[in-house]
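Sequence in, structure out. Go.
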Amino acid sequence: MKRWHCLWGVWLALCWLLPAALAAAAPAYGPLFTFSKQGRTHYLYGTMHVGRPGSDAPDWGLKQALSASDALVLELDPTAEAAVAEVTALAGAAAPRQWRQLDAASRDSLLSQLDQMGVAREQARGLAPSLWLMQLALREYQRMGQQAQHSREAMLLEMARAARRPVLALETAGQQSRLLFEMPAPALREWVRQSAEWQGAEEADRYYRDLISAWERGDLDALQALVALPGYPRLSAWTQHEMLDRRNLAMARRIDDWAASKRLFVAVGALHLAGPQGLVRQLRQRGYQLRPAPRAP
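Output:
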């Protein structure tokens, strides 16, 4: 995800001469911890769900983490059958209620934003507004060169397949989607306003740059500070309490259960690690010792 450019002629020569050294020198992005209890050591990694093409090579620390683990644990298993169909069905069922939650100005704003994406109004009303808002947010990341297919999760899945490690999921797509489709009306209306105000705005670009930079550095305090969006208090509170704190409690319980019988490499969105209810603190409260994991030999 980091913006860096290569002198391709020099690098091509080095690729022939020093392939092992180059592999070890892959940039180390995102916070990585070990967490240990009862003689068993696990890994906790904070990911980004999007990435820049060419920047999704695993560093030495991630390779070591997977090598020392019995299973990869993700928020979701993207290969789960029928996940897309389940989310689409839930979005369709939630659509009438969520569209009614929007006032006239919010409805017009969202429909206008979707019209710019080429989504017809009849099609738009067939799915829940919160699902469309997620698509609009992803579009902003794409505008900045970030793509879901180059996410850390995609990279880790490839690593797990190559290493023949099983993949465990902390949640289902349906569980995550229901949180979106049940969000309160004030937060939903604020999200519509935030989406409209941030499209192509320098404020949005600065926020996304700060978020990516904080993730690259593994700076949990900086990441936590970015949860609260100035001017959008209801959306910020819903994000913190419903999308992070509540889910973190359930994630910590499941991680603790699995950790009793196998060595885990847990990889979840980096915001889940941060804050007073983040996984770093949750796991410490469950008796684990957490330490930053080495990223180079």
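Check: The chain has one domain: 28-292. Strands lie at 32-37, 40-47, 71-74, 167-169, 264-269, 289-292.
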